[in-house]
Write a structure and sequence with these properties.
Blueprint lengths: L1 H60 L5 E6 L8 E6 L4 E6 L5 E7 L7 E7 L2 E8 L2 E4 L6 E9 L4 E7 L13 E6 L5 E5 L1 E5 L5 E6 L2 E6 L5 E6 L11 E3 L5 E6 L4 E10 L2 E10 L2 E6 L5 E8 L5 E9 L5 E6 L9 E5 L1
Antiparallel strand pairs: 1-2, 1-24, 2-3, 4-5, 5-6, 6-7, 8-9, 9-10, 10-11, 12-13, 13-14, 14-15, 16-17, 17-18, 18-19, 20-21, 21-22, 22-23
């Protein structure tokens, strides 16, 4: 009786352990399958996120927007004027061809304005003309010669440009030019010596090119600050510079040496900037994109005279450079990269 009862208990215990073992095994297999499936799905999710991130980054790396405006004179002698190059459509088309004279050095009055400021050659004189749609309005009437690089100061409601006095030297140096300021309805006023005036972002100062570097001129009190000094006074008129729209960057091209120097500005008052890098290119007319992510310029092969002109864009972050537009069908001496909006 005792042995039979004892055997019965052992059988019950053994059966219990077998059932427990089956339950734990089932639970283990379930969680193993679940965890593996979850891990695999998470891995796929991470891989998908990385792929999406890579695709997004790739798209963000090269995505210049807007249109670049150029002054062009076709080699066939026709249709001299301002042209618009639509970057996304890769289309170059005339934007403004004046019947009165020859327009060049065009720049929009403001970033949001549709009025284009241009220098217009009329025989022996040059005047600044405002063009909006099909309407052209002459904005200057003085005998200052070779009026160039017009821009508009919003705070002072004034036209800014460079020009030459009648008996000025003709050596191709910036100091041959002066910078003029003309408020609405008034005669122009000479504010500084130098060429290529470019307004600072606040519209209250201009940066000008002189024989010994770059100067910032206050439009109110006409005080000057030598913000970029060269080793000598050997600056030539073909060394162009540009400011980015918000004043974060300065680019200065030196085509003879094959360089475009790019600086990052940390302060305009007092002026402080740090050298970023040197773009190796024989280039003219550098200009920044509205979002300050790209720089465009006319690049040439450095022969005598320069040949194979093309429009180039470079990503400032990656320094990737691409040729966008062949400009060999246009006169090199009448070619300007004017604006980007």
């Amino acid at each position: 009786m005792f042995l039979s009862s004892h055997s019965y208990i052992l059988k019950k215990v053994l059966l219990f352990f077998i059932l427990v073992s089956i339950v734990f095994t089932s639970i283990f297999l379930f969680y193993k399958t679940y965890l593996y499936s979850k891990k695999e799905n998470n891995t796929k999710l991470v891989e998908q996120q990385v792929l999406m991130s890579t695709e997004t980054t790739s798209q963000a790396v090269w995505d210049p927007k807007g249109s670049i405006y150029l002054s062009l004179a076709p080699n066939n002698g026709n249709d001299f004027g301002i042209y618009q190059y639509d970057i996304s459509k890769n289309i170059l088309a005339p934007y403004s061809l004046l019947e009165k004279g020859i327009a060049f050095s065009g720049k929009f009055k403001t970033a949001t304005s549709e009025e284009l400021l241009v220098s217009e050659i009329r025989g022996d004189e040059t005047q600044i003309t405002g063009i909006e749609g099909n309407i052209a309005t002459t904005l200057t009437d003085s005998m200052i010669q070779k009026k160039r690089h017009p821009s508009y100061s919003v705070p002072y409601d004034a036209l800014i440009y460079s020009g030459k006095e009648e008996n000025a030297e003709a050596l191709g140096r910036p100091n041959e030019f002066n910078v003029y300021m003309q408020k609405a309805g008034n005669q122009e006023q000479k504010i500084a010596q130098g060429a290529m005036p470019i307004l600072t972002p606040d519209g209250r100062s201009v940066v000008v090119l002189r024989n010994d570097g770059l100067y910032k001129i206050d439009l109110e009190d006409k005080s000057s600050e030598h913000i970029w000094k060269t080793e000598s006074d050997g600056v030539s008129f073909n060394q162009q510079f540009s400011l980015s729209p918000n004043g974060k960057y300065i680019a200065w091209s030196y085509p003879d040496g094959g360089d475009i120097y790019v600086f990052e500005v940390s302060s305009w008052s007092p002026f402080e900037a740090t050298f970023m890098y040197d773009i190796k290119s024989h280039a003219f007319w550098p200009i920044f994109s509205p979002d300050e992510k790209y720089i465009a310029f006319e690049e040439v092969d450095w022969t005598d005279p320069p040949t194979q002109a093309r429009l180039v864009i470079m990503n400032l972050a990656t320094q990737e450079k691409r040729n966008l537009l062949d400009l060999t069908s246009f006169d090199q001496l009448s070619l300007f990269v004017d604006d980007w909006k």
